[in-house]
TrEMBL record:
InterPro entries: ARM-type_fold (IPR016024), W2_domain (IPR003307). Residues 46-203 form the W2 domain. Gene3D superfamilies: 1.25.40.180. Signal peptide: none annotated. Residues 1-15 have a biased composition (Basic residues). It holds the Pfam family W2. This is W2 domain-containing protein. It comes from the Eukaryota. Residues 1-43 are annotated as: Disordered.
Length: 209
């Protein structure tokens, strides 16, 4: 009798333990699905982003030379809050609006450098984040790839991209949408930077001697 009672007790204990495990699993699943449902953040490629770009581009066009950083920021920020997108996507939106339909080139970047710098600084974007935004632009508007080496040089000349940052970035693997094509396009400029870097190293070695 004692043995039967012991067996029944062990079976009951195992069943309770299994029920607890099942409950834990269902709780985890419900938490996971709940977090997914709550994630409404807009991301690159979403239709909403295209609509925002068009709206902001219309604002840029209608204001022409009277466009101010404050006005642009106010409008873009309102859309960002509404759609909950991050600051690197915000910079992409700004680039797409300032340089519509792939018109970003060296001259255009220099003419709008204060706008670009502001959104990089305000968003506290890292160099990699800034490059993500630029390459997302190139991915969206491939026609801008042709002039990308000179665009990148303009960023370099305007102290928005440092030599070491560029070399480290393009000698690595990145996850931006247009990285591979951008890397191919700007290869001549990166090669030139590498030669400049080597030349600078040689000069410093001679000075130390």
């Amino acid at each position: 009798d004692k043995k039967d009672k012991k067996d029944k007790k062990e079976k009951k204990s195992k069943k309770a333990s299994k029920d607890d495990d099942d409950d834990d699993g269902s709780d985890a699943e419900s938490k996971g699905s709940g977090s997914d449902d709550g994630n409404n953040q807009v991301t690159y490629g979403d239709e909403d982003v295209k609509i925002v770009i068009k709206d902001i581009a219309d604002l840029v066009k209608s204001n022409g030379t009277k466009l101010t950083i404050d006005l642009l920021f106010e409008e873009v920020r309102a859309q960002q809050v509404r759609l909950e997108f991050d600051d690197r996507l915000r910079l992409f939106v700004v680039l797409a609006a300032l340089f519509p339909e792939g018109s970003m080139d060296a001259e255009a970047v220099v003419s709008r450098k204060s706008f670009v710098k502001y959104f990089v600084t305000n968003g506290k974007l890292s160099f990699a984040d800034m490059m993500w935004s630029i390459e997302a632009y190139l991915d969206t508007y491939p026609k801008a790839l042709k002039g990308y080496p000179m665009t990148l040089k303009a960023l370099y000349d305007q102290d928005m991209a440092e030599e070491k940052e560029l070399l480290a970035y393009y000698n690595g693997d990145q996850d931006s949408p247009g990285f591979e094509e951008a890397k191919k396009s700007c290869a001549p400029f990166i090669k030139w930077l590498e030669q400049e870097d080597e030349s600078g190293s040689d000069d410093s070695d001679e000075d130390s001697d």
